[in-house]
Amino acid sequence: MELGEQITQYLVSGFSTGAIYALIGIGFSIIYNATGIINFAQGEFVMFGGMLTVFLLNVLKLPLWAAIPVAVLVTTIVGLLFERLAIRPLRQPTPISLVIITIGGSILLRGIAMLVWGKDTHVVPAFSGEVPIPLGGATILPQHLWILGITLVMIAVNRWYFSHTISGKAMRACSYNRRAASLVGIDVRRMVLFSFVISAALGSLAGIIIAPLTMTAYDVGIMLGLKGFCAAIIGGMSSGLATVLGGLILGILESLGAGLVSSGYKDAIAFIILLLILFLRPQGIFRKAQTERV
Amino acid sequence: MKRFLPILFVVVAMLAWSSLCLAEQAPIRIGGLFAVTGPPSFLGEPERNTAQMVIDEINAAGGVKGRKLQLIAYDTTGDPQKAVTAATRLIKEDKVVAIIGPSTTGETMAVIPVVEKEQIPLISCAAGSKITDPVKKWVFKTAQNDGLAVVKIFEYLNKKKISKVAILTVSDGFGSSGREQLKANAAKYGIQVVVDETYGPKDTDMTSQLTKIRGSDAQAIICWGTNPGPAVIARNHKQLGLKLPLFMSHGVSSKKFIELAGDAAEGIILPSGRVIVADVLPAGDKQKKSLMAYVKDYQKHFKAEGDHFGGHAWDAVMLLKGAIERGGDTPAAIRDQVEKTSNFAGIGGIFNFSPTEHAGLAKDAFVMVEIKNKDWVLVP
Q1: What is the pLDDT of residues B131-150, one digit of tens each?
Q2: Are B239 and A132 in contact (CB < 8 Å)?
């Protein structure tokens, strides 16, 4: 096999894994932008989406088209309860206490999933068959197209929501300045709740569409969450295209690194990028450094 | 003095009576260290279930030499530190006469100094060959050595005249031990490892590694890991349309793997204990009786297929039962008798222990199986 063909395959593989990271990354940045919290339970929303789908399909015998919206809905309710019960009651929220709460929440959600659904890995059937599609010497699966397609749709919907709806604009206002936002009559608390609802929904959707490829278990959220976080950091915590590019860059670098250098360094590559960006360009690689206006 | 005599008599009589009662009722205590939760729970859970099931059955049938057995099991969560604490507790507080487990090699290595010092026999359920090599006086094991599985695959490759292989191993204890054994044994069988790649236990896409293998001159791929990684690899292998035959380790020899890999599992060949092919074994097979009994029992109690991980605990309990029947119930007597066990047809294979051999199994403990039509088929 020619090196050129190999590189095509690395790029295609990286692109499809990157799309997954991007979708998870966007969940991180939405909550961050509305609240200033890094929600480390985001990976657990992803896991809940996948595991709930498995549960609905195998135990309640729902068809796939019905299981997906129900799983998204239930996870969204979990996200809502999480905000109501764990984030809102906090009297004096400081970033560090909020981050610790989300870490605690992630451990709790993981524990619940383990007790309810057990420790086995499960598989969700592919949405439209498993016949590989040749693509210029490389191959991808129909499921990859689903992932790419849904990621694109989600980005478009996000963009529309944040720039063309009242509540989306209000959420952006909160991210710029909470106090000023509340002074002009925006209910900041409601916006925070919204942000959790949206990112729980997005996370669970990501978990569902990737489950046919990556399989799912109670503990998949940790690694996927970290990679999504990485993507969001590369994208400078933007809830738009920058995070998507961040995810794709991460996926492609991982795949090229594993193929051309050594697979032992695959995860190391991701985390070295994360550290370099945090040290050198904490605002993300696509964003200009912010300047304070006085 | 005469006045005290009746009292003394009564006291002595009471003591004798009570100790007689104790002798009749006190069960023989056997310790268990299993990783029932945590990452290696796929080992620890069936092991604990099986040990309890077998001991309950022995007790229902009247116990060993009229005495009941009692299993005192602790969950080690796969953590060597917890395993050591639990082992100490079993020995000092629960006064067990022997310990079954731990489930993983790392935990077993941590527990060995404790049992050697306290002189309590340990029958480990972990696979690492370093557990009994060199031989430790009080330590035995029932899981097949990784090296035996490697040898079995290499013999098959020799038969098929395949000499260049790519290995793809998981970066955890199981995978790195397999990788060592694969590389150490390759030269002996005239096999050359042309690609040596790894993947993380939680990785979700291995097409990069497989693409690299496709670009090499390897004639076969050997993957060493436990679920779910190998299932992802099988799917990626199919996605890329690779023509190279794919071999797996005994780490995936359960129905779960076929379920996870789906159609991609077809044609994969792996070494496995005999448990999963119990029903298709020839009637003359020495282990068939034990295997069928175990598989049916486990199915009845836990509504799941008995796998060879649970089998390690079955073998351990049966070895202890045999030892107590032949010798006594003191730790030293049990140790001596376990060491003298020979020709014991268990779940893992035919065990032959001796003062220089505490693993007890030979390479015939494995058979080669192929996945066809979502089931296992024996490969001649």
Answers
A1: 888 899 999 999 988 888 99
A2: yes
